[in-house]
Structures are given as structure tokens and as C-alpha cells.
Design brief:
The protein has two domains: 45 residues; 228 residues, DD-peptidase/beta-lactamase superfamily (Beta-lactamase). 47% of the residues lie in helices and 18% in strands. It contains twelve helices and eleven strands. The strands form four sheets. It has a five-stranded antiparallel β-sheet with strand order 2-1-11-10-9, sandwiched between helices. A hairpin with a 2-residue loop joins β7 and β8.
Length: 340
């Protein structure tokens, strides 16, 4: 009888000790997966405007957060990766100049030749959009594409024929989404004071944003003298993220536009926007011979708003490959335990 009682006592003790641990093991990871799945599903259905608004809220405070000396430790405590943690795993990128920045804290997670001053091509159009919107011009005003808007410098093509009349808002959309040079040039030409005043406003805005290595000579980016650094462009992308129309237009996959008697579909120049596997708040591509392939984005990576700047990528798909490598790198490091 005593032996039986002892065995029962040991059995209850074993159950009492092991049951909570077993339950914790059973529910912790599935619960985490369920949460991620639910969030991912909600984000998939969220419109570009709503997604961008969430990123803009972060962008509005990023500049302040970056000034805090304790941002590194505070962000790490809330799940952000520290520079030391992330850089402990090698990241090999083909782009000549790179910045990867946690926008919430302002911490640079990775950089490569980040202060090199390089041509930025159509990344310029983010500044073109900000200057246009800052002027509070009538977005419904009709603008006509003129011969002056035709690219005589690089002889680039356009899907907008001379004589086309579109609203200023549509010109802005096509300049940002499809990188239409005629649309961008028409915005500068129809600015109060004309193209020269527009370029002055672009450089004034750059100075206001603290872009020390940035210079503009035209609103399209076709001029190779439009230059900046990856560090400066990270600031410019953060600033652009605070404009709802820029967020919407740069993350629209495609858009039908009436041109004369026909409708033409314009597409986003960033394949990652069209692919739908990224959650992107701001996007802009750029290319001229002098700049190589360029890409800037504001995107959610590991549930953190992240700014990516990739300059001078010469391979046809190098900038996309580098962006995906950064995404995998951040996600892989996020699963690594923090070191204290």
C-alpha cells in the first residue's frame, strides 16, 4: 500500500512539473506563427495608401529619434537589431553604394561607400514631387506636354505623346510610378517662375533636409550632374514618406491613363512593387549610363520600417537581387538571439 501511494505521489509530482513546460512548448511557436500569419494576411489586403500612412507615421518621428544617443539600446530592447548584431553576419552586395537604415531609430544597419557622391538619375523625381506638392499648386490643372519636354539629352523614349493634356496630379503619378521624363519635366516647366525657379526650389529643399552632398540641375534626373550620396538619399526617402500622394503613386503597380481616344496602361518601374511579396511604402528606381541601376525604398522588414538605398548597380537585376539579399539578411538576423 505504501509503495502504491509513493508511486502515485511521484506520478502527480511528475505531471505537476512537466505539464506547464509542455504546454508552453506546445503553444509558444504556433501562437507566434498564428500572429505572423494574421498580420501578413491583413497587410496583403491593406491598400498602398494605408500601408504608406503607417510608414509615414514612423517617418515623421525618425529624424527626432535619430538624434537620441540612446536609440541603439532602446531599439534593441524593443526587438530592433543592433548594428553589431546585424553586421556579425556577412552581407555581400553588388551595388557600389548602399545604406540600410532602421527608420524608427535612425540606426544604420549596413552601409557601403555611403558618402560617395554619385549620379542618381530618376531618384531625382522624389524631390521633383516634394517641391511640386510643397507649392500647393492646383493638382487638377491641365498641363500639356510640349516639345520642350522631349528628352534631347539622352534620347530616351516616352509613352506620353507631345500634345497630350493631363492633370498635374496625373503627371505626378506617371513621373513617380513609371518614371516618365516628359511628365516630370512638364511639372518643372509649369512651376511658378518656370524650370529655373523649380531647380532653385529643389536645391533649397535639399538644403532644408540637410542633404549636404546633393545637387540638382533638372527635374528628371537625365542630367548626370544630379548627384547625391546614399546617406543623403536615406534622408530624402524618409522625407518623401511623409507625403501621402508620393506613397500612393510610387507603390501603385499599374494605372490606366486615357491618351487621346485610347487607354494606355502604365506600369511601376520597380519589379518588387509589382511582385507583391514586399510591403513597400515608398519606391523609386533610376537609371542613366552614368548612374548605373539605382533603387531606393522604404519598406517593412521584420516588422520594422526600413530604408534601403542602392546606387550604381550595373547588372540588369542586381539592384533587385541586392534588395532581396538585404531582406533575407535582416530576416535571418532577426531570428538570432540577442547578445547582451
Amino acid at each position: 500500500m505504501k509503495l502504491k501511494s509513493s508511486l502515485l505521489a511521484l506520478l502527480f509530482l511528475s505531471v505537476g512539473l512537466n505539464a506547464p513546460l509542455s504546454a508552453a512548448q506546445h503553444h509558444s511557436k504556433p501562437a507566434s506563427k498564428a500572429k505572423i500569419s494574421k498580420v501578413g494576411k491583413a497587410r496583403t489586403k491593406t491598400s498602398a495608401v494605408a500601408k504608406g500612412a503607417k510608414l509615414a507615421a514612423v517617418g515623421a518621428t525618425a529624424a527626432v529619434a535619430a538624434k537620441a544617443a540612446s536609440a541603439h539600446h532602446a531599439s534593441a530592447a524593443h526587438g530592433a537589431m543592433s548594428y553589431q548584431e546585424v553586421s556579425s553576419v556577412k552581407l555581400s552586395l553588388q551595388s557600389s553604394a548602399v545604406v540600410v537604415q532602421d527608420q524608427s531609430s535612425g540606426e544604420v544597419l549596413f552601409e557601403k561607400n555611403s558618402n560617395a557622391v554619385l549620379p542618381i538619375a530618376s531618384i531625382t523625381k522624389l524631390m521633383t514631387a516634394m517641391v511640386t506638392l510643397d507649392a500647393h499648386l492646383d493638382l487638377h490643372e491641365a498641363i500639356r506636354v510640349e516639345e520642350h519636354d522631349v528628352d534631347m539629352l539622352k534620347r530616351s523614349t516616352s509613352h506620353i505623346p507631345v500634345g497630350t493634356v493631363l492633370s498635374r496630379e496625373m503627371m505626378l503619378r506617371l513621373a513617380l510610378m513609371s518614371s516618365e521624363n516628359r511628365a516630370a519635366n512638364s511639372l518643372g516647366r509649369n512651376y511658378p517662375g518656370g524650370p529655373d525657379a523649380f531647380v532653385v526650389a529643389m536645391n533649397r529643399k535639399a538644403k532644408e533636409l540637410g542633404l549636404r552632398e546633393t545637387r540638382f540641375y533638372d527635374p528628371t534626373g537625365l542630367n548626370a550632374n544630379n548627384v547625391s550620396s546614399a546617406r543623403d538619399l536615406a534622408k530624402m526617402v524618409a522625407a518623401a514618406s511623409r507625403y501621402p500622394l508620393i506613397r500612393e503613386f510610387t507603390t501603385t503597380s499599374e494605372y490606366d491613363v486615357p491618351l487621346g481616344r485610347h487607354m494606355r496602361t502604365f506600369y511601376n518601374t520597380n519589379a518588387l512593387v509589382r511582385g507583391g511579396t514586399w510591403e513597400i511604402g515608398v519606391s523609386k528606381t533610376g537609371y542613366i549610363n552614368e548612374s548605373g541601376k539605382c533603387l531606393v525604398m522604404q519598406a517593412w522588414l521584420n516588422n520594422r520600417p526600413t530604408i534601403i538605398v542602392l546606387l550604381d548597380s550595373w547588372g540588369k537585376l542586381t539592384r533587385i537581387g541586392d534588395a532581396n539579399r538585404i531582406k533575407r539578411w535582416i530576416e535571418a538576423n532577426a531570428s538570432r538571439p540577442s547578445q547582451s
